[in-house]
Design goal:
- It is a single chain.
- This protein has 323 residues and is α+β, with helices and mostly antiparallel strands.
- It has a single domain, classed as phage-related protein like fold (Alpha-Beta Complex), CATH 3.90.1690.
- The chain has helices at residues 2-16, 19-24, 30-34, 41-53, 118-123, 130-152, 168-173, 189-199, 215-226, 231-239, and strands at 36-38, 62-66, 70-72, 75-78, 98-101, 104-106, 108-117, 179-182, 209-214, 245-246, 249-254, 265-269, 273-288, 293-306, 313-316.
- It has a six-stranded mixed β-sheet with strand order 8-15-12-9-11-10. Strands 1, 2, 7, 13 and 14 form a five-stranded mixed β-sheet that branches.
- Strand 10 and strand 11 (249-254) form a beta hairpin.
- Helix 4 packs across helix 6 and helix 9 (215-226) runs antiparallel to helix 10.
- It starts with a helix and ends in a 7-residue tail after the last strand.
Length: 323
């Protein structure tokens, strides 16, 4: 694993005076350097926490651990007003009020390759803490890209990153059962939030909800509230967007929504949005003598989707003045 391998290399450098002597010394187990390994369960759990911990979406939505490449997100739909009066000695007409809709998670392998140079291992000032810094930095970067892909992925896009798999926005645009809210000509963020909330079917109103909007749109919302000469305005001015809510519903500013068209957002129950991870996160290392670097490769298999189409409100065409 990375932690053991880098620490062994650093210790050998200190004991042998140079990187070349360290590589050739008995202090380094070259089989450790050349082999790859799946993270231990404890380290894997910590690594995943580093991945999602700072992400606006991934830290809030459902994180599903998968044991196979696909997972079913079945929706059971139960009709309403199907009760009928009973009649003596007569069988009731079949209600036919239960139906099922199938949605899937289908994971795609994602890879982050990185090289750690010899000079870094020789000269870094962090000593034994370097491996922890490297691991956390890679996990944070991996998480940033995963959160970006969660929203903005588009398999039809020729971009090497965006084309990995479809994100929530692209899936929702192609789904005729999603509730669309067109924010064209809506001039305040508060009015956008009000329109989106009124568009949500009342069946889901009692569930824990969240608005996900472009970061700058939520910043504009905080400015709107801060302009009020009230305690609420003071709280917005001091607390900023971290405390932004609308009728008690968190209004989450996600910087990755500013990387697309920046005119789209989502309102949904948090339990409805799912990020799936198949198998364990792998972190593999390989010493490359010609490059004089340790090659580090982080990989996972991930996908994103939602369970109930009707519980997703896709906000579109947010005015440029609000973002």
């Amino acid at each position: 694993m990375l932690i053991r391998n880098i620490r062994a290399i650093q210790e050998a450098v200190r004991q042998n005076g140079s990187f070349e002597n360290a590589i050739n010394s008995r202090a380094i187990d070259t089989t450790d350097i050349a082999t790859a390994g799946k993270l231990t369960p404890d380290l894997e759990a910590q690594f995943i926490q580093w991945i999602i911990g700072k992400q606006a979406a991934l830290s809030r939505v459902v994180n599903r651990r998968m044991t196979s490449p696909t997972a079913r997100l079945d929706e059971m739909i139960v009709g309403t007003r199907k009760l009928r009066a009973g009649a003596e000695a007569q069988a009731p007409t079949l209600a036919d009020g239960v139906s099922f809709a199938k949605r899937d998670l289908a994971t795609v392998e994602v890879v982050w390759p990185e090289d750690i140079s010899r000079s870094f291992l020789e000269d870094n000032i962090e000593g034994p803490q370097a491996e922890s810094t490297i691991t956390q930095a890679l996990a944070t970067a991996f998480g940033n890209d995963s959160n970006d892909l969660f929203w903005n992925g588009d398999e039809d896009n020729s971009d090497d990153f965006l084309g990995i798999n479809d994100g929530i926005i692209d899936i929702a645009k192609a789904d005729g059962s999603v509730v669309d809210y067109d924010a064209t000509s809506v001039t305040t963020v508060q009015a956008v939030l009000a329109g989106a909330l009124r568009s949500l079917p009342v069946d889901y109103a009692a569930l824990p909800l969240a608005f996900f909007l472009p970061y700058k749109t939520v910043l504009t919302y905080a400015d709107e509230i801060a302009d009020r000469k009230t305690v609420m305005g003071d709280q917005a001015l001091v607390g900023g967007i971290q405390q932004a809510t609308y009728f008690g519903i968190p209004v989450v500013g996600d910087a990755h929504l500013n990387l697309g068209s920046a005119d789209e957002g989502v309102l949904s129950p948090l339990a409805n949005l799912v990020w799936g991870v198949q198998r364990g996160i792998t972190l593999e290392t390989q010493w490359n003598a010609r490059k004089r670097a340790v090659e580090v490769t982080v990989s996972a298999r991930t996908d994103q989707n939602y369970v109930k189409s009707g519980a997703v409100v896709l906000v579109d065409n947010i005015e440029a003045s609000l973002r």
